[in-house]
Design a protein that fits this description.
Helix 5 links the parallel strand 1 and strand 2. Helix 1 crosses helix 4 and helix 2 packs across helix 3. The strands form two sheets. A four-stranded parallel beta sheet has the order 2-1-3-4, with helices on both faces. Strands 6-5-7-8 form a four-stranded parallel beta sheet, sandwiched between helices. The chain folds into three domains: 87 residues; 89 residues, BRCT domain (Rossmann fold), CATH 3.40.50; 76 residues, Rossmann fold. By secondary structure, it is an alpha/beta fold.
């Protein structure tokens, strides 16, 4: 399949999922769900099978299908379906005008969270604080952090508030990827911020907060600049990772930087080699940076 076709199919899927979110919000707007609405929703999903490879939609479809197997929706099932739809849309919180993360994909019951030598990835906006603070507190208990899902990821922690950059209003690509991995039988837990925060609080109450760990890497005590567009997000996120690896980052690319980390989204590495040919710093890619971060994380005592 061509890149154009893959991109077009992804757009169609995203549009259909967002339309489904709108339907669900319309159904739940009066605080009730009846059999006719449930049947219509089930039929709508059935007719739009183009996006049924979306794991979140699969979960919702199977839940509705099981409730309608006997062609009846009793009061308990109505209440359960309302709760499921609210969890799916992220409209289940007390705060108005804020879209919360979907609760549907979370492991139920929540798993025990082990920090020591486990790999964590964070997604969304956290009530606890910025993601870098959440990551720092997690690392203090000898956990490893990755800015994106990797095969070693043990826990995907989802922030309470949805992020504007997510593919859909209440969940993003990391949640989709984690659900795909679960479908393949891989061991990865999807947990809420609340579950993570409770585990963290219990640990700190028990043993206190360890001193901040510093990862030793080739960036330690070096000066680093960043340039370009990055898969992992903004240049600010790249700088945070570099600082975690012991580097001092610059506001703009300077000739005195020891390293220039470049994002190659929409630009080839050769373009940067030409642009910064008179700079002293070694040019490395985003992928090289992430590999170094993984290596450094494994060496943290």
């Amino acid at each position: 399949m061509s890149n154009y076709m893959m991109f077009n199919n992804e757009q169609i899927k995203d549009r259909n999922v967002n339309e489904l979110l709108g339907l669900c919000r319309g159904i739940t707007s009066d605080g009730t769900v009846n059999k006719e609405e449930a049947t219509y929703l089930h039929q709508w999903i059935s007719k739009n099978k183009a996006f049924l490879d979306d794991p979140m939609t699969n979960i919702l479809f199977k839940r509705i299908q099981s409730m309608l197997e006997d062609n009846h929706l009793d009061e308990e099932e109505k209440e359960d379906l309302l709760k499921i739809l609210l969890e799916y849309t992220g409209d289940n919180g007390p705060v108005e005008n804020i879209t919360l993360s979907t609760l549907l994909p979370f492991d139920n019951p929540p798993p025990e969270i082990i920090f020591f030598k486990k790999s964590f990835c964070f997604s969304g906006t956290f009530a606890y604080g910025p993601k870098r603070i959440c990551a720092d507190m997690t690392k203090r208990f000898s956990a490893e952090i990755s800015p994106r899902l990797i095969w070693q990821t043990d826990y995907l922690v989802v922030g309470t508030v949805a992020t504007k950059s997510w593919a859909h209003s209440n969940y993003g690509r990391k949640i989709e990827q984690a659900l795909y991995r679960k479908e393949r039988g891989e061991k990865i837990a999807i947990v809420s911020e609340d579950t993570w925060a409770k585990a963290l609080t219990a640990l700190t109450d028990s043993i206190g907060i360890p001193e901040k760990q510093t990862m030793n890497s080739k960036f330690t005590n070096k000066k680093a600049s960043v340039a370009g567009w990055f898969k992992m997000g903004s240049q600010g996120k790249v700088k945070e990772l570099l600082e975690d690896l012991g580097a001092t980052t610059t506001k703009k690319v300077t000739k005195t930087a020891d390293y220039i980390v470049v994002g190659t989204e929409g630009k080839h590495i050769d373009d940067f080699l030409t642009q910064y040919h008179d700079h002293n710093g070694t040019i490395i890619t985003e992928d090289d940076l992430l590999k170094e971060a993984q290596n450094a994380a494994h060496t943290v005592p």
